[in-house]
Design goal:
It is elongated, with a radius of gyration of 42 Å. The protein has 373 residues and is of the alpha+beta class. It folds into two domains: 89 residues; 263 residues, 2-Layer Sandwich (BirA Bifunctional Protein, domain 2).
Length: 373
């Protein structure tokens, strides 16, 4: 019996060493230590042996069982570690690489990106971003901005007017402070704002000087061609305080132009006319394609039409008459002065990205929009 137990020991050692994986080790365990294994049967039958054999057989049998159990545990742990390492290597995911979804994620529209870029520039200069209503009162859109009653911009061919009857019976006309406005009633008192300039008045009604604000938003005019659309986006700027001059306006717009179009840009101002600024100017930026020379690749620059300059916005010093509408809020034209400017976001985006037709921003042509990822 002892000889057979020693044979089982050698057979078990050999089977465990030959096991190529954890499954084979488990098979060896069942074969040599399982309920029906020969060694288990021998140990169960010790009581049936002659008394002189019971001690040696039991001692040797238990030694062999403990030895095989130890070998099996070691082999099982070794194979499980190796299999885990193999599986980790085969299934490894490099989390430092970006995913590749079946459908590319969306991205911001170029006009939204341009608007946010403009906002970031002026916030960095200390301006506050304000927004206002797109459906506006004539008082804020024209009257308080020094537009005379017969100004062409008030005519139906330029402005979208809202029938006051559609607003309900006796619509209340109130200012930003909630107080009633002394505006004569009529069908043209409510309109789609033609610029974001009404927020100049609303902003000054809400805050005493000094005030530094920009007002991005959607505006509406009766235009439709390659460079005009009935709906477009504009950014209005207003800076009012003591000792603010046209030189401050020039420096502000120079900083803006260089931030948007490049550090080598320059700006020039030309006399112009706007009802709510005096003096008024048109602002040009030196062409970033030809470097302001008017020549590109030995030919006339097609972007600036050979002039070396690109018109980007209108501006000027706030007309004292405008301060007259907000004088009770601390805007005494003898004490404060300031400047205002307005630019079309589409115009800035067209120039910066070389888009030939304004309407392309609204066509939702994926081939065009994908270029701005």
């Amino acid at each position: 019996m002892l000889e057979r137990i020693e044979q089982i020991r050698e057979e078990g050692r050999a089977a465990i060493s030959r096991a190529s994986d954890a499954a084979a080790v488990e098979e060896a365990r069942v074969g040599f230590l399982g309920r029906k294994a020969e060694l288990t049967t021998i140990l169960r039958g010790i009581g049936e042996l002659p008394p002189e054999q019971r001690g040696p057989v039991g001692k040797t049998g238990n030694e062999v069982r403990r030895e095989l159990e130890g070998l099996i545990d070691e082999a099982k742990a070794r194979h499980e570690r190796a299999e885990l390492d193999d599986r980790l290597a085969a299934e490894a995911i490099d989390v430092t690489l970006p995913g590749t979804p079946p459908v590319l994620p969306g991205h911001l529209h170029p006009l939204t990106r341009t608007r946010r870029e403009i906002e970031d520039i002026f916030v960095g200069l200390g301006y506050r971003v304000m927004e206002g209503p797109e459906v506006e009162h004539d008082y804020y859109n024209f009257t308080a901005l020094n537009y005379p009653p017969g100004h062409p911009a008030r005519m139906l061919q330029d402005t979208f007017y809202v029938d006051a009857g559609s607003l309900g019976p006796d619509p209340a006309l109130v200012g930003s402070d909630g107080e009633p406005l002394t505006v004569p009633p009529g069908p043209r008192d409510v309109l789609l704002r033609t610029h974001t300039s009404p927020m100049q008045i609303r902003g000054m009604e809400e805050q005493e000087p000094p005030i530094f604000i920009i007002v991005p938003g959607r505006v509406y005019r009766r235009d439709s061609d390659a460079t005009h659309t009935p709906m477009f986006d504009q950014v209005e700027g207003l800076a009012v305080g003591e000792d603010i001059t046209l030189a401050d306006l020039h420096g502000t717009l120079l900083t803006f132009a260089r931030a948007v179009f490049g550090p080598d840009r320059d700006v020039r101002i030309r006399p112009h006319f706007f009802p709510f600024t005096e003096p008024s100017v048109e602002v040009d930026v030196s062409c970033f394609r030809c470097g302001g020379t008017g020549r590109f690749e030995n030919d006339r620059c097609s972007l600036c039409k050979g002039t070396g300059w690109l018109e980007i916005l209108g501006a000027g010093m706030v007309d004292p008459n405008v301060f007259g509408f907000v004088g009770e809020h601390g805007y005494d034209p003898d004490r404060v002065q300031g400047f205002a400017f307005g630019m079309g976001i589409e115009r800035i985006a067209m120039l910066k990205h070389g888009v030939p037709d304004l309407r392309m921003f609204f066509d939702n042509d994926v081939r065009m929009l994908e270029q701005f990822r």
